[in-house]
Amino acid sequence: MSLFKKRKTEEIKIAEYSPEQISEEKKVPIPIEKNPVSRDERIKSIQIQAKHFQQGIKKWTNAHLVNKVFSFIFLAKKDLENQLQAIDRHFIHLSEVEKVLDTQLPELETMEDTVMLELEEQINQQILILQGVGNLIEDARQRYYNHLKIATLSVCMNRTNLELENMVTLIQHFLKEFKDLHEAAEFIFYNSGNLIIETIHLMVEHFKKQKNNRYEKMYPLKYFVKTDAIITLSFTEWVDLYNKLKFVIKMTPDSRIASNIDFMNAFHKMEMRYLILMMHIEAGEKNS
Q1: Residue 73 DSSP code
Q2: Is the pLDDT score of 277 beyond 70?
Q3: CA-to-CA distance for 206 and 216, rounded, in angstroms?
Q4: Rounded distance between C-alpha atoms, residue 166 and residue 169, angstroms
Q5: What value does the mean pLDDT of the chain take?
Q6: How far is CA 126 from CA 31, 56, 87, 94, 235, in A?
Q7: Which of 10, 11, 162, 140 is nearest to 84 (CA)?
Q8: Distance from C-alpha of 201 to C-alpha of 222, rounded to nearest angstrom
Q9: How many CA within 13 A on the CB side of residue 247?
């Protein structure tokens, strides 16, 4: 009895992307043990492997989501789009496996030995599949994203999977209103003054309401911009402003600025626009 559903071959075939990198049909033989491990040792081994598998899913999901964020630079690259969609399908399968595993692990103590052996084999099989998915994710990163600027990459650094998912959704929703990345970037360049000032004002006003007003003195509006009458910002001004806002959020945790919903909503909208501008510049350099 298999603890995990076998997927149909057609659902996982990725012929155009080195099929030897990943194969769900590959079997890991259970070796004949000269010195069989005890039941307790096997339970501990399964728990360790399961934890390794779960951590691997989290790690590679994060890397895949970063790739998806920056995929908007390469909207015309159908091979990248196909590769990302194939990886999406693998993660649907792996998520289902993880759910089944979550129900099986608490039953280890009472599980029959034969079932436990099968579970151990199945976990090893899924780890192999995950390693293959990781190879595909790394292949995409190396081929498409290896030369992106630090200023672009930094937007996605140290983000949770949920934050990255929300970022992808925000960008997709915004870009639907435009013909292409260039048109969206042009709109942002000329129509972001109000959002920028709103974001800064919300932060400044938040600090004014604090009992300790040192942040109000340290980070007035002029710390961020020269004037509140903004029409456009240059590329370097966008980078400078974004870095300042990120820095202040990081350095003022006791102010609970990150819990200010109005500010964070405005900041995420501004951050999304900043990222689209950065990706537009990257796309221009790729095509030049």
Answers
A1: G
A2: yes
A3: 9
A4: 5
A5: 87
A6: 18, 11, 14, 8, 45
A7: 140
A8: 11
A9: 11
Q: Write the single-letter amino acid at 188.
A: I
Q: Which is more confidently placed, 70 or 23? A: 70
Output the pLDDT for position 156. 93
Q: Give me the residue label for tokens 């194939």.
A: 86
User: Quick one: tokens of 56?
Assistant: 């691997």
* Cα–Cα dist 140/142, whole Å: 6
The 3 state secondary structure assigned to 153-182 is HHHHCCCCHHHHHHHHHHHHHHHCCCCCHH
Asked whether the beta carbons of 53 and 126 are under 8 A apart, the reply is yes
Would you say 137 and 67 are in contact if contact means Cβ atoms under 8 Å apart? Answer: yes
CB 207 within 8 A of CB 219: yes
Determine contact, residues 13/19, Cβ cutoff 8 Å: yes
> What is the value of pTM for the model shown?
0.81
pLDDT tops 60 at residue 10: no
Per DSSP, the chain holds a count of helices (H) and strands (E) of 12, 0
| Reported confidence tier of residue 220, pLDDT bands at 50, 70, 90 | very high
Q: 117: how many CB neighbours lie within 10 A of its CB?
A: 14
Q: At what angle do helices 39-70 and 161-175 cross, to 10 degrees?
A: 30
Please name the residue that has the structure tokens 């000032």: 197
Query: Could you identify the residue written with the tokens 């029959």?
Result: 112
The letter for the amino acid at 10 is E
